[in-house]
Specification:
single chain, alpha/beta, Rossmann fold, 2 domains, six-stranded parallel sheet, 49% helix
Amino acid sequence: MSQFFNAEGSTSWPQCCKFVAKIATVQPIRYILFDFDGTLADTIDLAVNIYNRIAPEYDRKPLTPEETKIIAGGRPQELLKQFGMSPQKLAVIMLRIKKEIHELMPDLLPFEGIPNAVRNIKGQGYRLAIITSNSRSNVNLFLKNNGMDQEFDFVYSGKSIFGKDKVFKRMFRKKNISSSEAIYIGDETRDIEACKHVGIPIISVTWGMNNREILSTLNPDQMAHSPQEIIGCVEKISAAHL
């Protein structure tokens, strides 16, 4: 409290007012926002298998195991250059992959431990949502098939290959949510970059698209190496907001 007093011991009102204003703008965490592919749903290997099967149709070669490891340790912008693929072609291929995943959705499972972690977080009073580039119909079907459709308050589907921060901003406006009252949970480097742009704390999970080594270089707020660890990460970030 000494910072509020001047050398004569009287109150420094400008500093005091700034402190009070800062307290007034602090909001508790209310929303836990999840990525879908690679975070909740085990779609990574499935997507790679589909890509390898359809690659010749788009004048591409199937990925080797070594190339799959390179993708896990790389950033999208660098990988497109390395593999000689345009963002436009990637978008076309991803649309095809998503359509095929939809047909396989009845058999798609969450990562082991995800349902329990989701229910635990929901039970603590948070509002849960999914922010994804996947289709809303795919996500809702997955949630219903795996008994998690009552755990999430909404699913927001938005597309932007290298500008996920724009998806966040559109969602915040539409849902009247402040970035200061949300935490995002995702598995990619671009998730971290987007969250830093809009000021959302992020928990990076290491079982999805990108591995822990490349994720850690971007300094996410927390890292979870298993679904159970997400719970503790949420608690740590929430406590820092109080």
